[in-house]
Amino acid sequence: MLQRNIGRSFLKRSLYLRYKISKIMKALVIGATGATGKELVNLLLENNDYEAVSIFVRRPIEKSHPKLTEHIVDFSNVASFQNVIYGDVLFSCLGTTLKDAGSKEKQWKIDYDIPAEFAAVAKQNKVKSLVLVSSYGASAKSSVYYSMMKGKLEEYLQELHFSQYIIFRPGPLIRENTDRLGEKISVKVIKFFNAIGLFKNLKPIATSFLAEKLVKSPKALPEGMTILELNSILKL
């Protein structure tokens, strides 16, 4: 009986992996106008594993592609556009800084409420995979506000029980042509410490590099929940 169960389990996994390799996917993206999101959308459009890319944005972007569908939406009312939240994999890249948001309450709305509400509708609409861009140190129990917020979002999304749930926890991101002075300084400081062997777990990575890993993750990783810290992201 044990051998039979093992055989069935192996066959089921083999069929699933074969299905994943051959399946062409439709991607949904929130946060498509951010540094990582822009890179992600460009790569998805050029990748043959994705037949269609739907982005959800507040205002039109200057981009045209046969595979691209742009939805101009009001994120404060996700229910008003739930009928177009259909696909195979949701990439959640939405996020902001406290400075840009203006207050913790507004940052919570962008970094937690909108991704949570959107993902809940996506799950209801049978989207199978969720790929989340979170952050190094994310923990619902953290005393750091940003890390706590990201950790609580991770936990909420876990309770939605997507068939595949992938969490990326990168450290500092190198954004091309960024105008954030504090970000530029922190990246330079961390690179200095990296050069002398310190803070390797906080090694900055380019948003373009992160986007490459996001694109390949749904097919490269198994069902269930996978958390990718920096070392795992580099090896993916």
Helical amount = 40-55%
The shape, in one word, is: globular
Tell me the structural class.
alpha/beta
Q: In CATH, what is the class?
A: Alpha Beta
Give the count of helical stretches.
8
Count the strands? Answer: 9
The Rg value, from CA coordinates, equals 18 Å
The biggest sheet, with number of strands, parallel, antiparallel or mixed sense and barrel status, is: 7 strands, parallel
SSE pattern, N- to C-terminal: HEHEEEHHEHEEHEHEH
Question: How do the strands line up in the largest sheet?
Answer: 3-2-1-4-5-6-9
Question: In CATH terms, what is the fold-level topology?
Answer: Rossmann fold
Q: Can you tell me the CATH superfamily?
A: NAD(P)-binding Rossmann-like Domain
Mean pLDDT: 87
**CATH architecture verdict:** 3-Layer(aba) Sandwich
Termini gap = 36 Å
Task: Give the low-pLDDT segments.
Answer: none
**Beta-strand percentage?**
15-25%
Describe the structure concisely.
With 236 residues, this protein is an alpha/beta fold. The protein has helices at 2-22, 35-46, 98-101, 104-124, 145-158, 181-195, 207-220, 230-235, and strands at residues 25-30, 50-57, 68-72, 89-92, 129-133, 164-168, 173-174, 205-206, 224-228.
